[in-house]
Structure formats: C-alpha cells, structure tokens
Amino acid sequence: MNIPVIYEDDWLLVANKPSGLLTIPAPGKQKRTLLKLLNDDFKNRSSGYRLHPCHRLDKQTSGLIIFAKGKSMQQRMMQVFKQRKVKKTYLAFIYGKLARNQGWIRNPVDGKSALTRFKTLQRLKDFCLVRIQPLTGRKNQIRLHFKQIGHPILGEDRFALRRDFKIKAKRLCLHAQGLDFLHPVTRASIHLEAELPEYFKRFLS
Fold this sequence. Notes:
Elements: E1 5-8, E2 12-17, H1 34-44, E3 51-53, E4 62-69, H2 71-82, E5 87-95, E6 102-105, E7 116-123, E8 127-134, H3 141-148, E9 174-182, E10 189-193, H4 198-204
C-alpha cells in the first residue's frame, strides 16, 4: 500500500492511516498492519532503525498517527502524550442534528472522567460535519461520547446498529485530521493536517 507520509525528520514520522487497516497486530487479526507496512519500507531503504507507534487509531478510523524512530524516542514522545501536550483534532459525520453548534461532552468512559469538545462545521439534511477535540484519551472516547448523546458517528457498527439509521455509510466516518505538539527534541511547534479522505468528499457531494 502507498501510505502517505505527512511529516518526517530524524526522530519522528507521521503517517496518514487509511481506514480498515490495523495500527499494530492484534490477537487473531490480520497480520498486515500499518506498523508492518512502514517498517518493511524502512527495511528496504536500509534505514537501520525501526518505527514504534506513539499512540493508536481504531482500525476503522483514518488519519494522522505518530511513529518514533527507535524505542527511546517512542518513550519521549509518549511522555508528551501523558502530559496532555498533544492536541488531536478529528472530523466526523454525526447522525442527526446537534442541539448546539458547539459544546462539551463530559460523560465518563469506563468509569473514568472524559471530556470531548466539538463544533459543528456544516449541517446537512440528516447529518452534520463536526470538528472534535478529545481533551482526555479514553479508549473509544469519541465514538462512545457521541453514541451516549444520541448522535452516533455515521458508519458506527460497534456501539450502534447501522440498520437503525436512515443514512448508510460503508465505513466509520471518523478522521484524525490534525495534530499539534511540541517536538520532544527540537522543541519546535509542530502543526500537521491531513486532507479530508476521498470517501468523505464523495459523501458530502
């Protein structure tokens, strides 16, 4: 697969993961993962190091994901995440029409506090294009939060049933569109964006 690389330096690489591809291997799941594809490419380039993921995206979620070149850099970048110094921005198609154009979702996830900020960018007939920023990093936080308020993400098939909704989507309409963080080595402010996937563009049209 031709995996788009959005950013690369001597320490980090940021790839634009396609939907339907696992980030790392999972028990009993397909062996072809984003990590393997990228490391196979690096091996062919005789780069002399391996990539290690600094965070994850669901299989069905597309978008930006950071990899470290070497274990020590992975630990440094993961520390930046633990300090909540990485701002992640997602775009999603949300079923129905939200009562407010912007706001917060504060419902707990797995018994832990969770906070998600959202802003409606475009209202269509039966769904909305929404920009989302998770302020905490709970597993499946975005998907669960919007399901909890009665507006699941289009294409959701794990926390909601697709047949329950008029609009049918072939994939989960959730895209990790932006990343902002302070580089752990150079201390430079990094701002990255991935364009809207073609599937999103076709859905809007």
